[in-house]
Amino acid sequence: MNKSPSSIFGIVQDDIDAVEKELYSVIQSPVDLVNDIGVHLIQAGGKRLRPALYLLCARGGNPSLSELLPMAVAIELIHMATLVHDDVIDSAATRRGRPTANSRWGNHSSVLTGDYLWAKAFSTIASSADKSMLKILTDVISSMCEGEIVQLREAFNPEQDEADYRQRVAQKTADFIAASCELGALSGGLDEADVVQAREYGFALGMAFQITDDILDITASAEQLGKPVGNDLRQGIVTLPTIYALKTSFHRDELRNIIEKQNMSDEDVRRGLEIVHETDAVEYSYQQVSRYLQHARNSLPLTFRAPVREALLAVADFVGLRKY
Amino acid sequence: MNKSPSSIFGIVQDDIDAVEKELYSVIQSPVDLVNDIGVHLIQAGGKRLRPALYLLCARGGNPSLSELLPMAVAIELIHMATLVHDDVIDSAATRRGRPTANSRWGNHSSVLTGDYLWAKAFSTIASSADKSMLKILTDVISSMCEGEIVQLREAFNPEQDEADYRQRVAQKTADFIAASCELGALSGGLDEADVVQAREYGFALGMAFQITDDILDITASAEQLGKPVGNDLRQGIVTLPTIYALKTSFHRDELRNIIEKQNMSDEDVRRGLEIVHETDAVEYSYQQVSRYLQHARNSLPLTFRAPVREALLAVADFVGLRKY
Fold it and tell me: Which family does it belong to (chains A, B) (predicted)?
């Protein structure tokens, strides 16, 4: 059994419950269908990692929850918007073991609901957020979109190296988690050096988080993942373990041929995963995760109070240990 | 030949050119594909009606262009984002006679580029916009999404009356045009009564604009439209002329049956349009356009300077006369 993430957010667990409540209130719409999809997305939502990190880093200082709530909610709404659009893009049928919005309500409503969530996110912070914080948020969103577009463009292309991969993971995932921490530190009124450190912690954590995701996609069971195994490979998305195998496997030419197929059969995917598993790609990738997590831990601002530090260290441990 | 819209924006024509230039600069990305799609969308862009209305209403007062530019650009970026997502939703192959982004680069890149444009829109105004203006903008976007979702939900449903239609058109189109005028009047520092009037002008103009669009979809040639005729009917979107025909035509049961078909043949669409044309649905709909335009003209703030009033009246004339 995995340690429940709900127990690791420590001193901000109550705040997360408030975020949860506020999410339901913000997405309310006179249009039933919009409500239904919104509620589904909230319920399908995961750990609330990003708002939790935002709140924890803010608790490095002493702001009130009411000051923090809008940005925490906006961060989760933005994350939800990216997820619902990602699922449309990936034609995903399930996420975390539940049907995706697109599989239940169709791509069209899902695209529009994502847009609705963007608007609600900015609406939530319009009246409270500091201008420079708004800019941090919008810059990271455009960068996320760029990262996703690059991922699409580079799908089925085996000619990608680790640097390409890291750049993509930074844009897709780590920059947003870094921004969540940075925004938290700014909201907490921390000094500039601590803001930079909090951001660094978030960035390294985000890199570790996404690499773990990419490892689990080839090692976990479909049940654990709540979606099919080898999903990335099937979509031609070349992740760290695959890049490693493409460099080191005796069967690298075969793997390369599989990746270049736009319509992989189940057997292709199975064989591709087998080739990756024959190498020590998973071990190598976990080493990278550990390296990033160590960097995250070392980056934590020393001025953070003990319960904040403890929670942020627990989050780092959780990212390294999670099995789904 | 239609009067070119570029000549009707009068005193803000130079400002629109500045908006145009700024659009290219804002969408720039280190990712070539993002640039390519962005440039395509700007070039495929229409009349820049919304930023022009924003600028004109702002010119009711005396702000500088540099104060106005970010919001004008953001308004057009938001419009572009809705268009690119709409084209994905409608699976449209062409818009204004040019291939759509989705037909050229696929749905996935188009969804992401729309998201990129949302982010760029808010990024553009993050550092300058007044909080209440930001709120007006985000509220209108969520309302637009709701309107589009309702349209999807009510597709192929012939049980819609004029009130449903007006509500949908308000949310889909008129509210955003109203907000463009309202934001302009606010940026121009006009007094509250004039802000309300400017909004009213924009709302009525927007209603007239969308009803005209819906009429042209059944009266214009595919060449004029730059997209197939009867597109709305084929997608089950019930517009004012159709609602009128459903109420008055001798063949209303036949029309009802056609609308309920989820997969209309070309012959179904042709026959549906024929039934609508046999009634005076088009004449009736144009009467509604005229009524809204008259209301728009009457709503113009009296304090607006002569060249501003003239341009806003010319825009109303243009909306009433446009043939595509």
Answer: Belongs to the FPP/GGPP synthase family.
Indicate the fold that domain B5-321 takes in CATH.
Answer: Farnesyl Diphosphate Synthase (1.10.600)
Asked if A149 contacts B175 with a C-beta cutoff of 8 angstroms, the reply is: no
Instruction: Please report which helix (H) or strand (E) contains residue A267, including its range.
Output: helix A266-278
Tell me the residues of chain B between 128 and 187 that have a Cβ less than 8 Å away from chain A. 128, 131-132, 134-135, 138-139, 141-142, 145-146, 148-150, 152-153
Q: Residue A82's closest CA among A173, A208, A164, A21?
A: A173
- B95, containing H or E segment: strand B94-95
Residue that is written with structure tokens 């080191």 in the block = A248
* pLDDT score of B2 more than 70: no
Closest CA to A74 of A146, A137, A30: A137
pLDDT by residue (tens digit) across A132-173? 899 999 999 999 999 988 888 899 999 999 999 999 999 999
Backbone φ, ψ for residue A98 (5° rounding): -115, 155
Rounded CA gap, B124 and B126, in Å?
6
| ipTM of predicted complex | 0.87
Find the angle CA(A49)-CA(A16)-CA(A288) to the nearest 5 degrees: 15
In one-letter notation, the amino acid at residue B13 is Q
Question: Residues A87, A90, A96, CA angle at the centre, nearest 5°?
Answer: 50
Q: What DSSP line would sit under B241-310, residue for residue?
A: HHHHHHHH-TTHHHHHHHHH-SS--HHHHHHHHHHHHHTTHHHHHHHHHHHHHHHHHHHS-TTS-HHHHH
Q: Could you tell me the residue ranges of all domains in chain B?
A: 5-321
- Alpha-carbon gap, residue B197 to B209, rounded angstroms: 18
The whole-angstrom distance between B238's CA and the closest CA on chain A is 18
